[in-house]
Design brief:
By secondary structure, the chain is α/β, with parallel strands linked by helices. It is built from 9 helices and 10 strands. The protein folds into 2 domains: about 140 residues, Nucleotidyltransferase, domain 5 (2-Layer Sandwich); about 170 residues, Nucleotidyltransferase, domain 5. The chain is globular. It starts with 5 loop residues before the first strand and ends in a 19-residue tail after the last helix. Bound molecules: 5'-O-[(R)-(carboxyoxy)(hydroxy)phosphoryl]adenosine (KG4) and zinc ion.
Length: about 350
């Protein structure tokens, strides 16, 4: 009988400290500590994030191990996020992973955070309708990235389009901040938009070549709308927040889908996946399904818990690398910048 493979995954690339244990690709535990300190500043403060990771990492790993109900000695390997992300944050997770694995005498596995968002689709779950088949296109939309990725195999990924300025999640967060909505604003914009009219304010779409994106123009358009509105009526935001959120969200989703449709037609690919924090957005999820059905797409959307940053996706990527005996050296360095192709 084959031996069960238990992988501990550790994620600390931004402002969430997370740990998860997978058994043969199935999630046994998926723990996360969010950092509320950044709400005070309207964005992530790197130094504060590193300090919070240092406080959280041991309790979060202990929690994940205890929920998984296995002993440390049963772990086959420890997978950690190598990058991309905030260097100080990455250093906490990678240093912990190295020390922990050395103590246990097991290998470490270095994981690319953006690859992990895509590979979250392969987390095993017997209730799932299936997994994407290769090749597929994955729209990876997070706070730091907006890319259309051509996925030819687990570790063969090529960016075919990406943002030339702000990421989609960043646009959500900055638009929210303009209206005094706390960080991270994306989920709250989504909530306000439910009660708003998406056609009340019309924003122009950017003109960008190929499958690339731009969101800085929309961010500025909302800023000017709010600035001018408040000059005329000091309650402008309060009176119109639902409609502003609905209109801005509608525009972001339209922009995202337009390029995705172009890329799908160009590459003649109808297996379409979405990944990253913005894939939690209710309109994006709905439109992918409705537009996808019209276009004959086979659409894959992760469960909510695997959209935003989590360690289950790191452990899953670690498991796939473990099967390939793709281990890292103790001196493998954390990397703030790391392309999805390596
Ligand atoms: O993948 P993620 O958790 O972290 C990064 O790697 O960046 O993505 C976080 C981003 C934030 O910008 C957040 O506002 C956005 O995902 N987000 C959403 C929603 N949930 C999270 N944006 C729009 N609608 C949501 N429901
Ligand atoms: Zn992420």
């Amino acid at each position: 009988m084959n031996k069960d493979i238990y992988i501990l995954g550790i994620e600390s690339s931004c402002d969430d400290t997370a740990a998860a244990v997978l058994k043969n690709g199935y999630v046994l535990s998926n723990s996360i500590a969010n950092q509320s300190i950044h709400k005070l500043y309207g964005g992530v403060i790197p130094e504060a994030a590193s300090r919070a990771h240092m406080q959280n990492i041991i309790p979060v790993v202990e929690n994940a191990m205890s929920i998984a109900g296995i002993s440390k000695k049963e772990l086959a390997a420890v997978a950690f996020t190598r990058g991309p992300g905030l260097l100080g944050s990455l250093l906490v997770g990678s240093s912990f992973a190295k020390a922990f694995s050395m103590g246990l005498g097991v290998p470490i596995i270095a994981v690319n955070h953006m690859q992990a968002h895509v590979l979250a689709h392969f987390i095993r779950d017997d209730t799932k309708k299936g997994v994407p088949t290769f090749p597929f296109l994955c729209l990876t939309v997070s706070g730091g990235h907006t890319q259309i990725v051509l996925v030819s195999d687990f570790f063969e990924m090529k960016v075919v389009g990406e943002t030339t300025d702000d990421a989609a999640g960043e646009a959500f967060d900055k638009i929210a901040k303009t209206m005094g909505v706390p960080y991270p604003g994306g989920p709250l914009v989504d909530k306000f938009a439910l009660a708003g009219d998406p056609n009340r304010f019309v924003f122009t779409h950017p003109k960008v070549a190929g499958f690339d994106y731009s969101f800085s123009g929309l961010k500025t358009a909302v800023l000017y709308l709010v600035r001018d509105g408040v000059q005329a009526n000091s309650d402008f935001v309060q009176d119109n927040i639902n409609d502003i959120c609905a209109s801005a969200q509608y525009t972001i989703v339209e922009i995202l889908l337009a390029k995705l449709k172009l890329a799908a037609a160009h590459y003649k690919i109808n297996t379409i996946a979405v990944a990253g924090g913005v894939s939690a957005n209710s309109l994006l999820r709905k439109r992918l399904l409705t537009d996808g059905e019209k276009l004959g797409w086979n659409v894959f959307i992760p469960d909510f818990g695997y959209c935003t940053d989590n360690a289950a996706m790191i452990a899953m990527t670690g498991y796939l690398k473990f099967l390939n005996s793709d281990f890292a050296a103790q001196d493998s360095a954390a990397k703030a910048r790391l392309s999805i192709g390596n």
